[in-house]
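Bug report

Summary: structure tokens for UMF1 family MFS transporter differ between web form and batch submission.
Environment: batch mode, default settings.
Steps: 1) Submit the sequence below via batch. 2) Compare with the web form result.

Sequence submitted:
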Amino acid sequence: MEKKMTKPEKSWALYDWANSAYTIVIVTAILPLYFKASATEAGINAATSTAYWGYANSFATLVISILAPILGTIADFRGFKKRFFVFFSALGVVFTLLLAVVPSDQWLLLLVFYVLTSIGFYGANVFYDAFLVDVTTEERMNRISANGFALGYIGSTIPFVISIAIIVLAQKEIIPLSVSVASQIAFVITALWWGLFTIPMLKNVEQVYFVERVPNPVRTSFKKLFTTLKNIKAFRPLFLFLIAYFFYIDGVHTVIKMSTAYGSDLGIDSTTLLIVLFATQVIAAPFTALFGKLGTKYSEKSMIMVGIIIYIFICCYAYFLDSALDFWILAMLVGTAQGGIQALSRSYFAKLVPKESSNEFFGFYSIFGKFAAVAGPVLLGATAQITGSTNAGVFSLVILFIIGAILLLRVPNANEAVSMPPVTGQSKK
């Protein structure tokens, strides 16, 4: 297999470099801490503010879960895929930038803007993931998908380190800024980073596989959507994989989204949390690339199962967490598995779907992944509120991983499964 990546492959992978800064700064690290401080100032206790953060994540993913299969079906028509990608990525970038103008004491407005950035981020990812079939071959999908995640972990550390430096310098009063203003500058840096490195994707990646346009694409798309639902049910390996993915990826995304709020509830200071998250990104990059290589050598399914087992151990270990050292160990374990399990899930699914209907099927991939993510944060938040313990909330996620593992055992390896035939329309390469 040719080792050198093509320009479309590089440009596609570089978008992970671009938007992963959003994941760590906005979803995982700085904004959650900023929000927690804002909520505390308003008199909201730690467990309740963590629950609100979880509910906001659930609402955003619910919106995308409803839109994804509908817009994905329309995007399979010639010329629509990139238009939708541009719209959602622009939505995410703009509202990430606008987070910087929200006063630090307006915790509710922060949540509203965060929901809008999340809709943009996850909406763009539906079409970005679907572009994988356009930029590479099936033989290279594991490698290219893993390279995208690995680049994301590496690239995200740059704006993250800059943001941490500004915040720490503000905390120590070395620079004449408040911590709130320093955090707002971090939001601006993230938005600019995301927007700048999206440009290669816009210039060099095109929709190769598509369905020819029809006079009434919206009505035709709904008909095609219902046909797809029937075909998914009829195609057992794909259906089983989506159900398994529904459960285990919910746990993965919930751990990522709620980790900083969890650490804060344990009494770990914000500086330590930011350093731990930076170290997690550094660990994640080589392990993601390793998962990609091992997935090709053995199978995607085997390595996804390894990732699930690691996460089950993480949830169990989290129940007994009571120190900063424990949180360090937990974060390093997350770093070994989070990128690999996502990259191989994406490439496995891409090998199964008909290429000219990739947006449509990745819409369902998104609805199974993101709609599932409605349940995880709610499960964690509700358990934390009922028990009064965030540790118990994280432990409750083990249920999702166990169910996902059981279902995944029944799914054949990608090279043993037969890809679905085209649903309708024409394809072009």
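Above is the batch result. After comparison, the two runs are identical; trailing whitespace caused the diff. Residues 36 and 49 are 7 Å apart (CA to CA). The chain has one domain: 7-208+234-408.
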